[in-house]
Design goal:
The chain is of the alpha/beta class. It is 48% helix and 17% strand. It contains ten helices and eight strands.
């Protein structure tokens, strides 16, 4: 696929009256009615003091909330037309919701953010400044994670190391979805067709010139995280299996070593029988070998099954998400 970047916003440098540079803040939400107003107030406060020549929109993606999240956002949008809303028909997960946000964002640059203020709006001006100076992507790196428990910090660090060991394209450590992406980058990402989405990997895969800003991650302002350890575990598996075939390749080597060990043991038993005449089978060794190789086979089949399941999802061709309604957004955007 040959991609030709679109000329939008600030790229029209030779226009007589260029359109104002627009930055889209894309915010997926799930049952966050108490966090919405706190977040929008903080964003408005930051942009009110911003001296850079940019305007902004806040694009909320309601990922199937069952509380009053939608109505809080719609109420705020009547007071502030910069606040816009995409309602999904049910909960499709954060990765799908983020893809919906990228597709409907109208800005010359897009910044995915969490509504809990652990992605501080105060960092946004520095990101915009680096973008206006020429960076196509500006990653926000968490210098500290004061809001996370020790176990979450340890497991997150282990995941980044393991992922970068097996993935063809590594991802920067301690960088989440919070980053600024130029419209050119967003358009490329929206063209990617896979359904098993791990956006952090896709953001790195597309390349482009990147800069980095560091920030201290604060504690969550309101409410509780929707990410349990079980969801994080499945999310990590999705990331690895959707970004690399290394697990399959590893089991090729494990299978080869296991087969070599089995043949070596069989040759040992044959030679021992020929020279000693003792052909009495050992019950313990037989059971250990059967259970050991049986366990390896089942584990390997599980790895293969993970990939087959993702192939099944891809060939069905179902949409990544379903939009129920749009508020403040053109239908054809």
């Amino acid at each position: 696929m040959h991609y030709k970047p679109k000329a939008r916003g600030f790229a029209k440098q030779h226009a007589i009256e260029p359109k104002p540079t627009l930055v889209s803040l894309v915010v997926p939400v799930l049952n966050e009615r108490d966090s919405i107003k706190v977040f929008t107030d903080q964003v408005e406060k930051v942009f009110a003091t911003l001296t850079l020549p940019v305007d902004y929109e806040i694009l909320f993606i309601n990922d199937g909330s069952v509380d009053a999240t939608e109505f809080v956002i719609r109420s705020l949008s009547k007071e502030n037309p910069r606040i816009r809303l995409v309602n999904l028909s049910r909960n499709f997960g954060k990765e799908a919701a983020l893809c919906a946000g990228l597709k409907h964002a109208q800005g010359d640059a897009v910044i995915p953010m969490d509504v809990d203020l652990q992605d501080p709006p105060e960092v946004v001006p520095e990101m915009i400044e680096k973008w206006l100076k020429g960076a196509t992507v500006v990653n926000a790196c968490r210098a500290t994670r004061n809001g996370d428990t020790w176990s979450k910090k340890a497991t997150a660090g282990a995941f980044y190391k393991m992922f970068n060991m097996v993935a063809a394209q590594p991802i920067p450590e301690n960088v989440g979805d919070f980053r600024l992406m130029d419209r050119q980058v967003v358009d490329v990402i929206c063209e990617l067709g896979e359904h098993a989405r791990f956006n952090k990997s896709l953001f790195s895969w597309v390349g482009f010139e990147a800069a980095t800003v560091n920030f201290e991650r604060p504690e969550r302002s309101v409410g509780k995280s929707k990410w349990s350890y079980w969801k994080l575990w499945n999310f990590a598996l999705d990331g690895i299996f959707s970004s690399s075939t290394a697990p399959l390749r590893i089991w090729t080597y494990i299978g080869g070593m296991a087969a070599f060990a089995a043949f070596s043991y069989a040759a040992f038993i044959l030679i021992l029988t020929l020279f000693t005449g003792n052909s009495t089978p050992g019950y313990a060794s037989t059971v250990i070998m059967i259970l050991g190789f049986g366990g390896l086979n089942l584990f390997a089949l599980g790895i293969i099954g993970e990939y087959i399941g993702r192939i099944y999802d891809e060939v069905r061709g179902r949409p990544l998400y379903v939009v129920r309604s749009l508020h403040g957004i053109e239908e054809d955007s």
